[in-house]
Design brief:
single chain, 399 residues, alpha+beta, Nucleotidyltransferase, domain 5, 2 domains, 12 helices
């Protein structure tokens, strides 16, 4: 394994493939009973973890495995229930350390720390190859339930997903019940291409809200359409919330993931275009390290919704995993002053940034698009960081 700019490069990329299960009435009842039983057991394990402070997977298993088995849950499923609880507390601790749940003493942080983690009755449950198997050619799934093994559960998926399930080995799967649909998220291991150790240069990517991504190669993904879509969705939510009728609540529930799906689709398309450009030219990809920007930057009230809806981390993660599949190196750099620095002469001044789109250097007079200029600076920093990392730090050998 090798890490490049925060992205791990190894032998395979794990991707989640979504399939829709089509169970009969009896099979659906067995699946529902299984999810409810597993999540009820997870809540009991979570209470033990909260009361005793035992959150490590091995220690929690020693303390709760027997009582989980006594509820009628199989041995392999019981281990997944306990691990799910341990992982949830690990995520909680990480969020507390990162400050994602507020400062120490804040109401939100106190609420998060002051009660055990609770799992919804229909929350996802992991399965592995010991208690779930797929016959891709036949289009069926065999899965363990509390009523015994349910065989020949039909499933449907896209052609691309079926090809991935046929071609690549399967890992852990998650059973979900969402919007009256049974879903199975199957992890597949896709082999990586060899990492390009000698990139010809770097494609700098400037991320933003007005322009989702601007590359040093000239590609610019405008955010106008997505921003308008978000504004329309926000206005519609306000209208429906004012009505407070059952029909309005049904519409809100039906549309609650529509905006997120739209943003995810846009980020997939943008990341695919950026990685394809880098792969075609033999370049690496340079991204901004924007971790913690939400807590560092303050905005006026009208700008807060757009800023906190900005899915820059998702776009960066999409670029990373697509780059790993293509063997394209990714480097994260410090974005400080990239929007105020001239990419031609290096002059730094706040006056260089005339407005959101226009950059005029006060040193050399060059006129450029502000985001394009910033992306060139990001590319320069990535090239310098890559060259510094390639240089050997070993002492010279004696003659």
């Amino acid at each position: 394994m090798r890490v490049v700019g925060g992205c791990w490069y190894g032998h395979a990329v794990k991707l989640a493939v979504q399939v829709r299960l089509l169970p009969t009435a009896a099979q659906a009842a067995a699946l529902a009973e299984t999810l409810h039983a597993c999540n009820a057991a997870a809540n009991r394990v979570s209470q033990v973890a909260f009361d005793t402070g035992t959150t490590r997977n091995y220690d929690l298993r020693r303390a709760t495995y027997r009582q989980v088995r006594e509820t009628g849950i199989g041995s392999q499923a019981a281990q997944h229930v306990i691990k799910k609880v341990a992982d949830a507390y690990t995520t909680l601790r990480a969020n507390l350390r990162a400050g994602n749940l507020g400062r120490t003493g804040s109401k939100r942080r106190i609420r998060a720390e002051g009660k055990p983690i609770v799992f919804r009755p229909d929350a996802g449950q992991p399965f592995d190859q010991r208690n779930l198997s797929m016959a891709v050619d036949a289009g069926t799934v065999s899965i363990w339930t509390t009523r015994g093994r349910c065989k020949d559960i039909a499933f449907a998926c896209s052609t691309k997903a079926r090809m991935a399930l046929t071609r690549y080995p399967h890992g852990e799967s998650d059973l979900l019940y969402r919007d009256s649909r049974w879903l199975l998220l199957v992890t597949v291991e896709v082999p990586e291409q060899p990492l390009n150790e000698e990139p010809s240069g770097f494609v700098g990517v400037d991320l933003g809200i007005e322009n989702i991504a601007t590359t040093s190669g000239g590609y610019r993904a405008a955010g106008r359409g997505l921003n308008r879509h978000r504004a329309r969705q926000a206005a519609l939510r306000r209208q429906l919330q004012k009505k407070r009728t059952k029909a309005a609540k049904r519409v809100l529930k039906r549309r609650r993931r529509k905006e997120r799906r739209r943003a995810t689709d846009v980020n997939h398309c943008v990341s695919k275009r950026i990685v394809a450009e880098a792969e075609r030219t033999g370049y690496g990809i340079a991204l901004e390290e924007l971790t913690g920007i939400r807590s560092r930057v303050r905005h006026r009230k009208p700008q807060r919704a757009a800023f906190h809806s900005w899915a820059f981390a998702q776009l960066a993660s999409f670029i990373c995993y697509k780059a790993r599949r293509a063997g394209v190196p990714v480097v994260f750099v410090d974005p400080a002053y990239t929007s105020q620095t001239c990419a031609d002469c290096g002059h730094v001044s706040r006056l260089n940034r005339v407005d959101q789109a226009l950059f005029i250097c006060r040193g050399c007079g060059v006129v450029a698009h502000a985001d394009r200029n910033a992306s060139r600076n990001i590319a320069h920093r990535a090239a310098a960081a890559w060259d510094a990392g390639r240089q050997s730090s070993a002492p010279a050998s004696d003659p």
